[in-house]
Design brief:
The protein is α+β, with helices and mostly antiparallel strands and 268 residues long. The chain folds into two domains: 11-153, SH3 type barrels (Roll); 164-267, no CATH class. Helix content is 40%, strand content 16%. It has helices spanning 116-124, 134-149, 155-192, 204-212, 221-233, 238-243, 251-267, and strands spanning 15-18, 32-35, 48-51, 59-60, 63-64, 67-75, 91-94, 104-107, 112-115, 128-132. The strands form two sheets. Strands 1, 2, 3, 6, 7, 8, 9 and 10 form an eight-stranded antiparallel beta sheet that branches. A two-stranded antiparallel sheet has the order 4-5. It is globular.
Length: 268
């Protein structure tokens, strides 16, 4: 066959994050695993699905497409990485996907298109259970292309195709988490004292407007980073927020903060 498919050294190298450490502010990307999604045309109900398309292919502008291609995640025989290159071409192995869970794999021969709005709802509900690392995404693409064409494309080619998009996702995630931190911090300060010398951060609606300014889907990582930096300079820094005393929030205030957080993440 000539070139062989590649494999990770171990399961940890395959993932960026798994439960309970899945980042809530990260955009939906290739290699994300979500639960509670039904695959059209399948009688079997799968516990999870694996997103397999390039981030630009699954979007129209900044929004998810009407239908997004996924591979159902099924129980599978346990495979050591050394066995990945020479068989099992119909699947993307997902070892140690869940804590104390059985070996699982994304099934390329059972792929289907699910509604983008359903995936967005599952993300908002906190039902993303894992994110593949950059290496994991490269391996996913390599195995899927081989399944469809029997051509081995080096993972370095996929790395070049995905690198700038993943950098944008990292910037977006960092910006969202810092923005939310500032929104909640300023909301508490405003409730504690209306005479504070620190100007309150705009409410969630203003954070949305700031996010809109750089979510056009075609911005480069550099442009995205400049916009994020500009937005963050206009708000108290994380260090400032930690240095200033925070009044103890009442149960009503904590409930309001949770509503603000839910509203912002649902909008994103």
């Amino acid at each position: 066959m000539g070139k062989e498919l590649e494999a990770p050294r171990d399961a940890a190298e395959l993932y960026l994050a798994r439960l309970p450490d899945v980042p809530p502010g990260r955009p939906l990307l290739t290699g994300d695993v979500l639960e509670g999604v039904e695959v059209p045309g399948e009688d079997e109900v799968f516990e999870q699905v694996l997103l397999v398309e390039h981030p630009c292919s699954m979007r129209v502008g900044a929004s998810l497409a009407e239908r997004v291609l996924v591979a159902p995640v099924c129980p599978y025989q346990e495979l050591e990485p050394r066995h990945w290159p020479r068989g099992h071409y119909r699947v993307m192995p997902l070892p140690a996907l869940l804590p104390n869970g059985s070996f699982r794999a994304g099934a390329f021969d059972r792929m289907g298109r699910v509604k983008g709005e359903v995936l967005q709802q599952r993300l908002q509900q906190g039902r993303r259970v894992a994110c593949l690392s950059q290496l994991g995404i490269n391996l996913l693409q390599q195995r899927m292309v081989f399944h469809l064409s029997r051509v081995v494309v080096p993972t370095s080619d996929f790395d070049r195709a995905f690198a700038h998009v993943l950098e944008e996702a990292d910037l977006m995630e960092e910006w969202l988490l810092r923005r939310l931190n500032v929104v909640l911090y300023s909301s508490r300060r405003k409730r504690a004292s209306t005479s504070s010398s620190v100007s309150p951060t705009p409410p969630v609606s203003a954070a949305k407007n700031s996010l809109r300014s750089h979510s056009g889907g075609q911005a480069s990582a550099e442009r995205c980073g400049q916009c994020c930096a500009s937005s963050l300079r206009a708000t108290p820094s994380r260090q400032q927020a930690q240095a200033d005393p925070r009044p103890e929030a009442s149960p009503e205030a904590r409930s309001e903060e949770r509503d603000e957080l839910r509203d912002f993440l649902a909008w994103v």
